[in-house]
Amino acid sequence: MKTYGSEPGAPSPVQVGISELAVSDGDDTLKSYGLGSCLAIALYDPEDEIGGLAHAMLPDGDAADNSDRKPGKYADTAIRALLRRMVERGASYTSVEAKIAGGSDMFEFDSFGEGVGQRNADAAREELEKLGVPLVAEDVGGDHGRTVEFTPGTGRLLVKTSDEEENGVTEL
Amino acid sequence: MRLDVNALGTFYRMAREGTGLAAGRLTHMTGVETRVGVTKLNFMRGQEIRRDFRTSKTKVGVRVELTGAIEGYSLIVFDRENAIRIVETLLDEADSDAELDVETDEFDRMSRSATTEVGHIMNSGFIDGWADVLETVIDVSTPEFIEGESAEPFFDGVSGSPGDDDLALLFQSRIEAVDTEIGFNHYLFPKRESMGALLDQLRTSEGIEYDKLDGFDRMAERGAEEVAKTATTLTGIETNVEIRRLNFVSLETIPEQVPDEKLVSVAFEFEGVPSGYLIFLFDEESAHEIVDAMVPSSVDEDGFGEMGTSAIKELGNIMASGFLDGWANVLDTAIDHSTPEFVHDMGAAAVDPVIVKLGSNQEFAFVFDTVVVADGREFDCEVYAIADESDLERALNDLDVDRIEETPTTAEFQEVDNA
Q: Of 3.40.640.10, 3.60.40.10, 3.40.1550.10, 3.40.190.10, which CATH number belongs to B2-202?
């Protein structure tokens, strides 16, 4: 969700709502809540300590006519928009790495076909490969929700599930 | 007057844009970091709007009259204590010695004028946002300060304010201050003729007759009544419908309004005219209460166990049948639903797969938002019915408006043996 008046280094985490993306640096925290089939895509440049988080909802933006207006909505256009904004901010394309989380398939409805979450993760992997960005870690699929917290400076991606007993928090 | 999804989509963008500008100005004015909360287009009956005002705390508002491209009234409403907090923040900025006497019943002159100023700047933010989207000019009257516990003072003198049975289109937005409790609502009551003219201008298809939305509302009403009735029959807990609303929102908004906590949900897909998804969400305490009521002999487990899960699925299943029968009766169609899917997880995570699925074909959705509660016991159930857009338009177009009033509710329930 967009915030107004947030300054760099502000202590409160910036919420990245569905179809949104945000680029930042250092110790800022970017956070996306309650991902089910949506996909969190985190890109970062470990040398320049610049990174960004997208909360994508659908796989294929090239096939949609509103992806110019909402690049963060689609896995492919979100990755390109993150990269562009990071490079504009001083990141070097060749050192950027990626982590993804989410893309669960919570329901087995007939209309869902082979899985709406799965498609999002596949689309992200494909786009990253096309752009030559290494995917260094992922926590995708399954049938549970995830909340992610991303620190652009270090590239640390915390993945929380609602299961308190086992694997409540995973660090990617 | 006819409307279509494109016209409503533009209205929605106006609401979003206006909320963004208003939030930015509030931040600029108070130095408080703000966030745009949920923005909705609401179709509500006059009596529901009035009930909204009545059931909550004392409110203060700032109202302006609009002329030009949109005619009607724009109203910012704060809970009284929130208004006091904002005014305190403002006065702090201006003069650190100033102290507010919050104990007095009446707002003093200074707080009134400060609130009016804040309200007016926010109203102007919204209106500038709409004018930007419509690329036109909207004129604004001088602001009026209003205080009251019911809807009357807020609606007094509003020509064309919706009668009890009139379905009004409301723009509802929420702006929240990050890390504090300040939040408020914004309402736009456009005049019917003015809205009709705008809709004609924005429509890109033939769309549907506005009066057919009455059918929507009747569907929502029947569906909600059935859910409450079924819940009472099955659990023995007296329940009633607390909120029933028809919203037009961007798909992304739907998971964002789900509480950020672990919830128990039962989800269905339904097919027919219309098709879509139906989700019941219970907080954990309510879900435990339901299990206790339906399966008294079950062991109190940490999770919900096999018995608990199947009890909740069964309740969901019968509530879904009731809800969709209510719809089918109004629409005179048949609607089938899938077997229940049980999820005990983060609330938003149980809703987002549905919007991901619908998102490939539509950007917005009509959401039938219902909250069922029980007196004195934990039973909070939120119901989201999200229909496939094209089906819904078809269903409504086929609807014979004259039939709506006569439709009886015919769904019947079997007693369930809990022993």
A: 3.40.1550.10
Active site (annotated) includes residue A69:
no
**Min Cα separation A134/chain B (Å):** 26
Tokens standing for residue B382:
């939120």
| Predicted local confidence at residue B402, as pLDDT | 61
**CATH topology classification for B208-404:** Chemotaxis protein chec (3.40.1550)
Tell me the HSE value of A12 on the side-chain side, using a 13 A CA sphere: 18
pLDDT digits (tens, 9 = 90+) for B80-137: 888 888 777 777 665 544 455 555 555 677 788 888 988 898 889 889 988 888 888 8
Quote the tokens at residue B406: 């006569």
Q: What is the pLDDT of residue A89?
A: 94
The neighbouring-strand residues paired with B43 are B169, B246
- Can you tell me the ipTM of this complex? 0.88
Question: Over the stretch A6-44, which tens digit does the pLDDT of each residue have?
Answer: 444 445 678 899 999 999 988 889 999 999 999 999 999
DSSP state of A74: B
Q: Is the Cβ pair B363, A66 closer than 8 Å?
A: yes
Residues A150, B339: Cα–Cα separation, whole Å: 37
